[in-house]
């Protein structure tokens, strides 16, 4: 797969099929991007399991923190890597070792995180891979919600965005009509 550009349908499929996320490198610091992403994804109905060995047993945005991916007790659809590109390889290898126990389907590497070796190993193990993207941003972009805060979504229309249950929850599953 070409990881320089992803089709919107690929990203939307990943986000629609994901219910549970293990966020490796989650932070309790409210000024960190991982905190924003975790809180946003929880608000959209995802079950997010923060992974941070220094905070194990504590809570981040109401979610129990685990020391390692192996400690997460329930199935996980996606591993979201909030670590640097070099660390992404070992996190991906751990995810591959645990994929059957967790029911893992996707390895997602955050903005500025790209490791082609990790991607190749994950894909060889049957996992989908997204690199250098943020699920929070992609969710907002695909749902049209990101335009509400003045971000250029690349679409010009006079039509109001489609609203889901709550505000924009899981709208990306519907076809965008312009």
Can you walk through the features of this model?
This protein is of the alpha/beta class and 178 residues long. Helix content is 32%, strand content 14%. The protein has helices at residues 8-17, 33-43, 85-102, 116-124, 135-143; strands spanning 20-24, 47-51, 59-60, 63-64, 78-81, 106-109, 128-130. The protein has a 5-stranded parallel β-sheet, sandwiched between helices. Strands 3-4 form a two-stranded antiparallel ribbon.
In summary, what is this structure?
Helices cover 32% and strands 14% of the residues. The chain is an alpha/beta fold and 178 residues long. Helix 1 crosses helix 5 and helix 3 packs parallel to helix 4.
Beta-strand content bin: 5-15%
Total number of distinct structural domains: 1
Q: What spatial form do the alpha-carbon principal axes imply?
A: globular
Order of helices and strands: HEHEEEEHEHEH
First-last Cα distance: 29 Å
Which CATH class?
Alpha Beta
CATH architecture type: 3-Layer(aba) Sandwich
The biggest sheet amounts to:
5 strands, parallel
Give the helix tally: 5
Q: What are the segments in which pLDDT stays under 50 over at least 5 consecutive residues? A: 174-178
Q: Quick one: how many beta strands?
A: 7
Write down the CATH topology. Rossmann fold
Give the strand order of the largest sheet, numbering strands 1, 2, ... along the chain. Answer: 2-1-5-6-7
Average of the residue pLDDT scores: 88
Helical content band: 25-40%
Question: How large, in whole angstroms, is the Cα Rg?
Answer: 16 Å
CATH superfamily: NAD(P)-binding Rossmann-like Domain
Given helix and strand content, the structural type is alpha/beta
